[in-house]
Amino acid sequence: MARAFAEIVQPDEAIEPILARPVRQALLEWLEEIWTEPELMAVGVKPRRRALFAGGAGTGKTTLAHHLAARLGLPMAIVRPDDVYGRYLGTGTSNIKYVFDQAEAIETPVLLFFDEFDTVAQKRMRSGVNEAAEHDHNAMINTLLARLDAYPSFIIAATNSAQSIDESVWRRFDIQIAIELPGQFERERILARYLAPFGLGREGLRHLAEAFATATPALIRSWCENLKRQIVVGPRCGWDMTKHAVVERLIAAVQPHPDAGKPRLWSLGAKDHAVGMMPWPLPRSCDVPDDAPAGDRDDGGNVVRLGSTR
Ligand SMILES: Nc1ncnc2c1ncn2[C@@H]1O[C@H](COP(=O)(O)OP(=O)(O)OP(=O)(O)O)[C@@H](O)[C@H]1O
Ligand SMILES: [Mg+2]
């Protein structure tokens, strides 16, 4: 049986990420460009088709690529380094060909998403230390360049080590976007989304978002979801459900990556004044008079919604 060339995810499984304004603006412009393809073609230019997302682990690169595919109504094929350096098909060159051949053979176009792209598209080597390996890698990069150029649909590549990517490969991407850590405004919205159906009220959210400064969206999501697990499971198991005990258990169980900055909450623990500001037991957001609507509060000025124009 043919080896799966990628994991295919469908548009209806996508979620809309909460992004800082400049990133959302750049992506919205790209979508507008794609939606205006016939008019662009009439004046001799095509919409851009290849984007590179650079950002640390858990900043939302995969989530964003999936959301964009969904906005374009396309399935997304996630190609991981293992699919390129697989055990069965020999060299990276033949695997790259296999991935593109398979993607192009699908009747409906798919957005190709290369995850951990730096592992595949590392700079070409000319050290002479291991000539056979260097030759293989360089041949693979040449194939990759040709196939990137020829692929008829959209390609997004994600990396958390942009500086390792081969320069010629880099130049094949018409859009390079840095996915930064969320700012205070985005953290408030991410917290509101993942705490739902519970709510803290605007002040509570503001304080907690400050205590999460430097956290990735992935860490915020994990903390909120574990909090909800504690709220449901803890009383059944007879755990200490005081706010102090719950927060301390959460902080012990959900840790930021050692290379990432430690948000204040992890330094101060339950003594953080943001914890003091948290209403407890956590109310439902519908019972908090000044709460942000569960999910995504959108209070104007700072927000450009990606999904708003079509
Ligand atoms: N901007 C965001 N808004 C809401 N949720 C987000 C956002 N970014 C990430 N998440 C959530 O955080 C988790 C991790 O996100 P994702 O896998 O997209 O990160 P990533 O940058 O691809 O990480 P990695 O480098 O490890 O592949 C997901 O569960 C996702 O739903
Ligand atoms: Mg990812």
TrEMBL record:
Name this polypeptide is given: ATP-dependent zinc metalloprotease FtsH 4
Recorded superkingdom: Bacteria
Transmembrane intervals: none
SUPFAM superfamilies on file: P-loop containing nucleoside triphosphate hydrolases
Species per Swiss-Prot/TrEMBL record: Rhodoplanes serenus
Chain segments carrying region Disordered: 286-310
Name of one Pfam family that matches: AAA
UniProtKB keywords: Hydrolase, Metalloprotease, Protease
Primary gene name: ftsH4_2
Keyword Hydrolase appears in the UniProt entry: yes
Molecular function as annotated in GO: ATP binding; ATP hydrolysis activity; metallopeptidase activity
InterPro entries found in the cross-reference section: AAA+_ATPase (IPR003593), AAA_ATPase_domain (IPR050168), ATPase_AAA_core (IPR003959), P-loop_NTPase (IPR027417)
Domain AAA+ ATPase: 47-183
